Amino acid sequence: MKKNWFSEKVKKLSSIGGYQKPELLSDSVKLDSNENYVISKQFQNDILTSARKNSDVREYPLGRVDDLIQSISKFVKIPSSMIGIGNGSDQILDLILANFASKQTTVLTSNPTFGFFEERCKLYSIPLIAIPFSDEMKLNIDDFIKQSKNTDILYLDSPNNPTGFQFTKIELQKLIKSFDGLVIIDEAYGEFAEYSLSNMVKTQENLIVVQTLSKSFGLAGLRLGYFIANKKFTDTFMSVLQYPYPLSTITIESGILALEKSFLMKDAVKNIKIERKRIIENLKKYEAFEVFDSKANFVLFDAQSSYKRVYSALAEQGISIRKLGKIGNHTGCLRVTIGTKEMNSKFLLAIRDLLG
Q: Is a pLDDT exceeding 80 seen at residue 351?
């Protein structure tokens, strides 16, 4: 046994880099991580207070996991036997890749796609075929159908992060039906879009739809994700692949309470869509920007050679957005989360002062 194997492995892993989180700017208007500030702080306080009263954290969370799955089942209108849970959708994706992919399997996705998924493929040495977006930040369904013959797993975040793009429902259904392999559709931003493919799982045994309470419910800090898939996969995932206790008692109780108040989430999503339209329309007024349509709770725009100046000027005014840089032929991409009306107005006012 070589004594230096451990240090060599650490050195190799450190070269991968890992998922890049946004910079933390103190006391900023936080529009960089696609969090939901539109749903009220009172909503959060109410469910956490009740969750603490319902919890005894000296005990392991046993039967309440089943109660949470029943609550999700009622929310998505899918049988509970087809629903599994995880510590955020990240953990679900990670467990799927760790157990169903390898150096011998190839993943088909878009470029760009969800950064965590891409980095996890690098970690496990899983080959990727990534189809680039067009200059209009759109994807061609025929490119995917053509390449699907050479791949084993299809992963698409729908809507896409960071572009906000989503195939039409008919196009995506066509792609899934034509794909002879595992299909993972990541609907982390699904509530902000026009459709979900969760019902398709009932007829497509090779389909897994991943969703989360992080975005639409404004519960990113609780780390509560779930998936919808055929019963056999779900049973295997929950009994064999998943950790014995993947969620804390507080998270489980909070999730159940949040789902009981899903009408508040739907009101917040409605307001976010209205504000998304306002942001897009205002940003399009500036010749310096190319703005792309979005079906998520964020907007991507290309500030070209001035993107670093725009980012820094906003940061100086206490407004934090995501600096992405080059995406395809676009060299200066920035992404702004749709926040509250007040937060969005501060962002737009700062842009007007900078470019107006």
A: yes
